[in-house]
Amino acid sequence: MVFLFLVTQRVISSFIAVTNTTNQIVMNCADIDIITASFVPEGGEEINATGFNYQNEDEKVTLSFPSALQKGSGTLKIDFVGELNDKMKGFYRSKYAIPSGEIHYAAVTQFENVIDRKPCPDDENLVEMKFARTPIMSTYLVAFVVGEYDYVETKSSDGVIVRVYTPLGKGEQGRFALEVAAKTLPFYKDYFNVPYPLPKIDLIAIADFAAGAMENWGLVTYRETALLIDPKKSCSSSRQWVALVEWWTHLWLNEGFASWIEYLCVDHCFPEYDIWTQFVSADYTRALDLDALDNSHPIEVNVGHPSEVDEIFDAISYSKGASVIRMLHDYIGDEDFRNGMNVYLLKFQHKNASTEDLWDSLEQSSGKPIAALMNSWTKQMGFPIILVEQEQQGDDRVLKLSQKKFCASGPYNGDECHNWMVPISICTSDDPACSKMNVLLDCAEITVTVKNVAPDQWVKARAGMISTVEVLKVMEAFVNEPNYTVWSDLSCNLGILSTLLANTDYHEEIQEFIRDLFIPIGQKLGWDTKPGEGHLDALLRGLVLGKLGKAGHKPTLEEARRRFRDHEDGKQILPADLRSPVYLTVLKHGDSTTLEAMLKEEVRPQDTVSVIGGVAGSSKHGRKAAWKFLSVDGFAVDKMAAEVKSFFESHPAPAAERTVQQCCENILLNAAWLKRDSELIHEYLLQRKAPPAAKV
């Protein structure tokens, strides 16, 4: 289907009930122009609206009538003109190429955080299609796609039809997603003890799609890269079971809970992925990074206007939400958690629910103070650092546990007394995997006695803050570490430090540190897959080679360039796992010719942010280029925060207001970090390069 039209005209009729006499009807409305509107009461004469008052900021329109509409039922008719937009929200166009190379367009929906306030195409040449009756559902979970697609199909073990729709000619690329989806449905049915309520579930790859995936009921939409390529698929089908939230304040209940349970399902389907270890790196630490800022926000945020919704689709709603659910699951225990979830889902099936409704159900199943515990985590922002003091008293160990709010800027000195209810497991070196005692820290400080702990046994605890140099020394101890998640964390933190030192005279020294740390594991892994390797080995190889390439390791750079040339010439196509590190390396150390070779196709709308972010994250020159592109003018490093703030004051972005504040705070924190530790870091890096002292 070509779908070349942008502007459409349409007439809709809706059966409505007038509950109180009025001469106005207020409706949601966005990006449409109403031509005529009228109301026809049952058994009465048509009344034409005489005025349309648009409230664009609130996405509403008020229809005014010359006489009062009486209580009762009737039909509201509206003739309007609207646009099938290219904004990847509402009802929009998505451009794709068919195998012949011809450009076609699909008509696609994305209704989360917008309601369907846009027109449908109205063409007398289109074929009318009828569908089965839609069950009761939230409007933002409605979805429809019109276009040309291939599909692969199977049935789950419990009889649900599962289809994966792909671009034409790419049906086989949907096989892995199909296999996983077919495993996922029975798993969630058994886990929640609630059957999937629809006869089918479709997964479809959309060429132009703003999110990673969207859990539309029965038609889950994905970016093509998320559905057709990603080998560790964690499906949005988990969200087909989540009760609908009653308002955006409870958004995290969908996003955080679904994020957590996706890991649960991946662990069930692919235990060899060690996915819960990856959770710590991918979600838990991501949440801590953002939540340590003064400009963070609670998990539950009051949303007074639709424009405020976009701001809370962040690491707090997703990653912190998932992390507190993970803590809650461990605190309650799997059996009581599942029983409580079953009560919750059955009670609120086809209904709206709030956070408190979930706590009530879990409290009922576990007999524990769930609401009090979780409110301390969802209604206030931030998190505590747990401090442990210990003293041996005969055969027992006395522990003093206390909590303080952790702040990225240093010790918290505010007037507010922040306390969280923290489930703590205490174990000893006799059996590190087994809890000797479970404690609920529900105040600023408590003292507990652990019986029968010898003086030479350690009690597991984590507390304190150390200098950057001490962190670098710890990192060096991981040189022979085989675990992917550990290397992922090392890579991330060294990336932050490398960015921090980009404008210093010793940036090359931190690159040398990175090379020294990553070379042994890089040599061990090599470039090619070995027999017996698994998914985590492939992830680790891509991570390590990419890090070495970015840090300027010459053998890695030369090999990446050779493989890129062979790939370009068609001699040896790069495996999917190596494309990211090879592309990253040759671009980082390439020139305009390299860039032109890479950019053979136009950048899709959803990828523009990645392009700007990739340039900004590449080097200090890239950051200046990205900022110049956005702000038209460059910046001085010491004035960066002020310039960012000034730029957005003159170019308002209401949906990103909090993000801008967080950005400015991070800039100031990084400046303070550099000022505090710069000389010590430089001294340590020079000391590493110095020859060993001569023996006397």
TrEMBL record:
Keywords: Aminopeptidase, Hydrolase, Metal-binding, Metalloprotease, Protease, Zinc. Binds 1 zinc ion per subunit. Residues 15-120 form the Aminopeptidase N-like N-terminal domain. Zn(2+) binds at E255. GO terms for cellular component: cytoplasm; extracellular space; membrane. Its cofactor is Zn(2+). It holds the Pfam family ERAP1_C. GO terms for biological process: peptide catabolic process; proteolysis. Signal peptide: none annotated. GO terms for molecular function: metalloaminopeptidase activity; peptide binding; zinc ion binding. InterPro entries: Aminopeptidase_N-like_N, Aminopeptidase_N-like_N_sf, ERAP1-like_C_dom, M1_APN-typ, Peptidase_M1, Peptidase_M1_aminopeptidases, Peptidase_M1_dom, Peptidase_M4/M1_CTD_sf. Belongs to the peptidase M1 family. CDD domains: M1_APN-Q_like. Residues 176-377 form the Peptidase M1 membrane alanine aminopeptidase domain. Residues 456-601 form the ERAP1-like C-terminal domain. This is Puromycin-sensitive aminopeptidase. The record marks Y318 as: Transition state stabilizer.
